[in-house]
Give the backbone structure.
Amino acid sequence: QVQLVQSGAEVKTPGASVKVSCKASGYFFTSYYMHWVRQAPGQGLEWMGIINPSGGYTTYAQKFQGRVTMTRDTSTNIFYMEVISLTSEDTAVYFCARGGGRRIEMPSHWGQGTLVTVSS
Amino acid sequence: SYVLTQPPSVSVAPGQTARITCGGFGIGGKSVHWYQQKAGQAPVLAVHDDSDRPSGIPERYSGSNSGNTATLTISWAEDGDEADYYCLVWDSGSDHWVFGGGTKLTVL
């Protein structure tokens, strides 16, 4: 069955960067897009971007362009999402969510989430 | 950018029908997906492509989409349906995915 296992919680200081991982299993890695979504405390879901694991092509939400990088390692079946220049506004739970074989197909399987806390 | 509007909260009595709306300009021309999120958990896909249910989702969950409003309907509401619900669409104009703000469903 499809499994997405994310890395553990992180605590960072303002200005630092964080890299969250998402290990995929139970399906053919390069056949399905991967989304990243975040949720600030008490707030709603926010779409951050999407990566095509086959060629590594990415699309980022306008809000995150220049500050977020999504990558993947096809040898280990792991996706990564890095955010730089962290501020307290980046405190959130970050989710990876597997999409479909086309970029317009919805996310259907979610990781457990990774809490990133930004605090001085 | 494309905006989806949901009511912040909806209440329903056990056994009654809850309807959660998701408003957006011309949303009837888009595919709408609905997620259920219980406290402290990851979202779960409840309805996709306007009205299709993934395996494991009860038939009590249904969806519709027309004009400027999509609706998630939960029939015979149970305590276990209490959760936050989010709509999601892909906006072809921006090539971005967009979430609604979420609706907290309370089963009184």
Notes: The two ends of chain A are 40 Å apart (CA to CA). The longest strand of chain A covers residues 18-25.
